[in-house]
Design a protein that fits this description.
Enoyl reductase (ER) domain-containing protein; Quinone Oxidoreductase, Chain A, domain 1; quinone reductase (NADPH) activity; NADP; 20% helix; two-stranded antiparallel sheet; ER
Length: 176
């Protein structure tokens, strides 16, 4: 390992079996993103029931060992390469497709799989009308994002704002 390389903790699987095979390892080198990758400092990770089958060795495919479980993670961008211009250090992101397993302090992800947290929240909202959508609080990050996504779907977008300044922001973003 290179001198001065940053280390992290991660839960690793070195053999398939019961939950006892999950081991905390404290001396793992933090990976450095390559082109079109981002390094995410993990703030929350998902625990999927399928991971029980994976670490027990009964899932349809077995990962190479040692293995860091998980794939759903939310956190902040820690580092990016020049060829991942959509993000900068400090951006809040979510991905369900990490490269290095999410039971760790840091994860690598392909830049195209990471979503800005406000965009993910807005995307998950259900659009129930074929004609239009009302976005209450359209001046916030999630609200503006919801407006952009709804417009991309070709919907008429109505948005609310609490101030005259907010109303100008909403109208400048193509909301009626």
């Amino acid at each position: 390992m290179a001198t001065g390389q940053k280390l992290m903790r991660a839960v690793r699987v070195f053999e398939f079996g019961r939950p006892e095979v999950l081991k905390l390892q404290s001396d793992i080198a933090v990976l450095i993103p390559k082109d079109h990758q981002v390094l995410i400092k993990v703030q929350a990770c998902g625990v999927n029931p399928a991971e029980t089958f994976i670490h027990s060795g009964t899932y349809s495919t077995k990962p190479p060992l040692p293995h860091t479980p998980g794939s759903d993670v939310a956190g902040m961008i820690e580092a990016v390469r020049d060829k991942a211009p959509a993000f900068k250090k400090g951006d809040r992101v979510f991905t369900s497709s990490v490269i290095s397993g999410d039971y760790a302090e840091y994860n690598l992800a392909a830049d195209h799989t990471a979503m800005s947290i406000p965009y993910f929240s807005a995307y998950r909202a259900l659009i129930r009308s074929a004609r239009g959508v009302l976005v209450h609080g359209a001046t916030g990050e999630v609200g503006l994002t919801a407006c952009q996504i709804a417009r991309a779907y070709g919907l008429k977008v109505l948005g609310t704002a609490g101030t005259e300044e907010g109303q100008k922001v909403v109208l400048q973003n193509g909301v009626h």
